[in-house]
């Protein structure tokens, strides 16, 4: 994967930070991330990271299979067989069965790339060559495994960052949606019929007691307070009396 992972990680967290701060840089950071990714989405990048991990693992396995180990004991059996020793005799010497000897000879022939008529010298030279390649392959494999482990760790960390980025952005968007919904609900209430009725009631109540603010003689004298306990009137009864007085042009 040729994408600059460190730059991608930096852009992801810059966008998250600016989104959380709700600052004007968020749009700029989002555009920078989009420009960096080109036609790819963040999800597609995450899929590519998984594919890269699989390729790294496959490369290590392939390298292990390119140069399989050659056992010198099997080479000696092949040399003895080519030199004229029968498999029965070899089985007696090695304390096993002829089929077991035959299996080992077939195995070493396959690994050496056996050709009919190969001499003892050619067999041993080929075995030495394969052992050298196997040793080099072991070093290469160790390097590949170290590189694979490092890249896999980086890929996993980046995929984790991508997931965290998604969750952070989604959470912030949900918060904003809830906030906007609350504001919209309040606006709908203020523009609705119920609020108009509520406002009319408040205006009417204010008008009822406006006279208390109009001290024609400079003061208002309270001669006696006659409350509901004496008259039996409720607040609604008092409101009705005030409304009637206002309707006749009088003051309560």
Please give a structural write-up.
With 252 residues, the chain is an all-alpha fold. The protein has 2 domains: 1-191, no CATH class; 208-247, no CATH class. It contains 10 helices and no strands. The protein has helices at residues 5-21, 25-37, 42-66, 72-82, 87-94, 98-112, 120-191, 193-208, 228-231, 235-247. The longest helix is centred in the middle third of the chain and has 72 residues, at 120-191. The protein is rod-shaped and about 135 Å long. Residues 62-67 have low confidence and may be disordered.
Radius of gyration: 46 Å
List how many beta strands DSSP finds: 0
Strand content: under 5%
End-to-end distance, in Å? 87 Å
Task: Give a short overview.
This protein is 77% helix and 0% strand. It has helices spanning 5-21, 25-37, 42-66, 72-82, 87-94, 98-112, 120-191, 193-208, 228-231, 235-247. The protein starts with a helix and ends in a 5-residue tail after the last helix.
What order do the helices and strands come in, and which of them pair?
Blueprint: H1 5-21, H2 25-37, H3 42-66, H4 72-82, H5 87-94, H6 98-112, H7 120-191, H8 193-208, H9 228-231, H10 235-247
Fill in the keyword field for this structure:
mainly alpha, 2 domains, 10 helices, 77% helix, rod-shaped
């Amino acid at each position: 994967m040729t994408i600059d992972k460190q730059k991608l990680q930096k852009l992801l967290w810059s966008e998250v930070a600016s989104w959380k701060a709700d600052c004007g840089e968020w749009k700029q950071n989002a555009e920078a991330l989009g420009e960096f990714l080109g036609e790819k989405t963040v999800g597609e990048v995450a899929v590519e990271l998984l594919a890269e991990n699989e390729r790294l693992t496959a490369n290590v396995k392939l390298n292990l299979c390119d140069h399989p180990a050659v056992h010198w004991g099997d080479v000696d059996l092949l040399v003895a067989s080519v030199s004229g020793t029968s498999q029965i005799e070899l089985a007696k010497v090695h304390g096993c069965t002829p089929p077991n000897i035959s299996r080992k000879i077939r195995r070493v022939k396959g690994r050496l790339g056996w050709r009919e008529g190969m001499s003892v010298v050619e067999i041993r030279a080929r075995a030495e060559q394969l052992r050298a390649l196997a040793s080099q392959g072991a070093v290469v494999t160790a390097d590949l495994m170290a590189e694979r482990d490092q890249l896999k760790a980086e890929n996993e960390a980046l995929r984790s960052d991508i997931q965290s980025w998604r969750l952070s952005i989604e959470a912030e968007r949900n918060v904003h949606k809830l906030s906007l919904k609350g504001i919209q609900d309040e606006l709908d209430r203020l523009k609705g019929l119920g609020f108009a009725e509520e406002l009319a009631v408040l205006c009417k109540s204010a008008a009822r007691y406006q006279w208390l603010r109009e001290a024609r003689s400079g003061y208002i004298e309270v001669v006696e307070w006659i409350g509901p306990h004496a008259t039996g009137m409720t607040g609604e009864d008092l409101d009705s009396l005030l409304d009637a007085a206002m309707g006749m042009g009088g003051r309560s």
